[in-house]
Amino acid sequence: MKAAIVLFPGSNREGDAARALRQAGAETSIVWHADHDLPAGTDLVVLPGGFSYGDYLRCGAIAGRAHIMDAVRSHAARGGLVLGICNGFQILCESGLLPGVLMRNRDLRFICKRQHLRVERNDTAFTRAYALHQAIDVAIAHGEGNYEAHEETIARLEGEGRVAFRYCDASGKVGGAANPNGSTNDIAGIYSEKFNVLGMMPHPENLIDPLVGGIDGRGLFESLLRAA
Amino acid sequence: MKARVTVTLKTGVLDPQGKAIEGALHSLGVEGIASVRQGKVFDIEIDAADPEAAKAALAAASEKLLANTVVENYRLELL
């Protein structure tokens, strides 16, 4: 699998995303945001975490309109895989590749901690290495992760099974105190209509090495490699 | 030509920053504050042949970038 990781000014998690992908067996390259094309043969595009353009205007707003995003849109339209993590999820929403918007966290704080997620389905290119409804232990680090969308949009996402992950506790119980940021329906990540684009606030790439306390994030990258 | 674009959150969209400011105003003892909503103001110098062309450019700027119309409204003014 060939993975292209897009680097915007202010991205800072591209190295971690590349490391997680290489560990799973992918070939990775870094693509500059001002480029117009993705490398030939790209299977997966990753929009990594960070603070593109210093979060100016709105998180992901300026990056969402970068040159390279036209190529990412075409790649997605052809059925190519796209993964947006944290700021990458914000960029996907701002670029129109995913619906909705990530608003300030309910309590206005930047939250950086370990967080469990429930895997809502395990029949997609991103989650087939997980068990259905498995509670995975990953990490979050964001100030704007409160997912909001029109009521009809939420109903459509739920009806079409497009919620990828929900915030839960260690036992897999969704919502309540386990929702860190006020996100609608405890949504931590969503898919596009064709399930080839995933945006998620949490960082699976943080938890791929026992040295840092867990490897639950590996499943996502291993799933992608199985998809290839 | 000078112009101003004001971007505000739509009614019903939770505005925790506005709420925090509202709380701070109350704790400062400023009286009569019923509620606060925070928005953004863009002061723009625009090269346009006439006000209609200027408004069209401002509307394009607002729709394409300045506002996220999922949660925000915008208002255009020529000053």
Describe the fold and architecture.
The complex is a heterodimer of chains A (228) and B (79). With 228 residues, chain A is α/β, with parallel strands linked by helices. Chain A has a single domain, classed as Rossmann fold (3-Layer(aba) Sandwich), CATH 3.40.50. Chain A is 21% helix and 26% strand. Chain A has 5 helices and 11 strands. Chain A has helices spanning 14-24, 68-77, 87-95, 151-159, 218-227, and strands spanning 2-7, 27-32, 44-47, 81-85, 101-103, 111-119, 135-142, 146-148, 163-168, 187-191, 197-200. The longest helix of chain A has 11 residues, at 14-24. Helices cover 35% and strands 27% of the residues of chain B. Chain B has 2 helices and 3 strands. Chain B has one domain (2-78): Mth169, Chain: A. Classes of the chains: A alpha/beta (228), B alpha+beta (79). The A-B interface holds A 57-58, 61-62, 65, 94, 99-101, 103-108, 146, 148-150, 182 and B 13-14, 16-17, 20, 64-66, 68, 70-71.
Mean pLDDT of chain B: 94
Question: Which architecture of chain B would the CATH scheme give at its second level?
Answer: 2-Layer Sandwich
Class from helix and strand fractions of chain B: alpha+beta
Helix count from the secondary structure assignment of chain A: 5
Taken in chain order, the helices and strands of chain B follow as EHEHE
CATH class of chain B: Alpha Beta
**Radius of gyration of CA atoms of chain B, rounded to a whole number:** 16 Å
Q: Can you list the strand order of the major beta sheet of chain A? A: 2-1-3-4-11-10-9-6-7
Shape of chain B: elongated
